[in-house]
From TrEMBL:
<dbReference type="GO" id="GO:0003677">
    <property type="term" value="F:DNA binding"/>
</dbReference>
<protein>
    <submittedName>
        <fullName>Transcriptional regulator</fullName>
    </submittedName>
</protein>
<dbReference type="InterPro" id="IPR036390">
    <property type="entry name" value="WH_DNA-bd_sf"/>
</dbReference>
<keyword id="KW-0238">DNA-binding</keyword>
<dbReference type="InterPro" id="IPR002577">
    <property type="entry name" value="HTH_HxlR"/>
</dbReference>
<keyword id="KW-0804">Transcription</keyword>
<dbReference type="InterPro" id="IPR036388">
    <property type="entry name" value="WH-like_DNA-bd_sf"/>
</dbReference>
<keyword id="KW-0805">Transcription regulation</keyword>
<feature type="domain" description="HTH hxlR-type">
    <location>
        <begin position="23"/>
        <end position="120"/>
    </location>
</feature>
<dbReference type="Pfam" id="PF01638">
    <property type="entry name" value="HxlR"/>
</dbReference>
Length: 161
């Protein structure tokens, strides 16, 4: 399935860098592995660009937000650019790496919709802007188009180059 310790995904008891781990999940979590960072990315995907807008929307302490934004910039998820309104402020903008987290955020959203709300409870929906309809559920597919489930996959080490 997703692998175990014997397949290269180590269990890490304390917070330390796993940037060079054999496991791509560990490497990804090293970059965006806390919930504040994922919520910042979520808001950036929704168009938030200003420090004050992230802070007020998330209700996060200014120092913690500054640390998370700095880390996301250092890890290549965000960059800054002159404010779009010409003011002296800087906008926080997703890089290509950051925009690549869109499917991760959608997957988390859909998992939350399916497992964390009572029947009929209100929540937000991700909507296709062209059709004004909710987007379809994400599916993992093989290269030939078959829908894959957990038991249809396994982790395989790549050959050393």
């Amino acid at each position: 399935m997703f692998g175990d310790v014997s397949e290269g995904c180590e269990v890490v008891a304390k917070r330390s860098s796993v940037a060079d781990a054999d496991c791509p999940v560990a490497r990804a979590l090293n970059v965006i592995g806390d919930w504040w960072s994922l919520l910042i990315v979520r808001d950036a995907l929704d168009g938030v660009r200003r420090f004050s807008d992230f802070q007020s929307g998330l209700g996060i302490a200014k120092g913690m937000l500054a640390t998370r934004l700095r880390d996301l910039i250092e890890r290549g998820v965000l960059t800054t650019e002159p404010a779009s309104d010409g003011s002296a402020y800087r906008d926080y903008v997703l890089t290509e790496r950051g925009r690549g987290l869109f499917l991760v955020i959608v997957a988390l959203r859909q998992w939350g919709e399916g497992h964390l709300y009572r029947q009929g409870e209100r929540h937000s929906l991700l909507v296709d802007t062209a059709k004004s309809k909710p987007v379809a559920r994400l599916e993992l597919r093989s290269r030939d188009g078959r829908v894959l489930r957990l038991n249809d996959t396994r982790v395989q080490k790549t050959e050393e180059k």
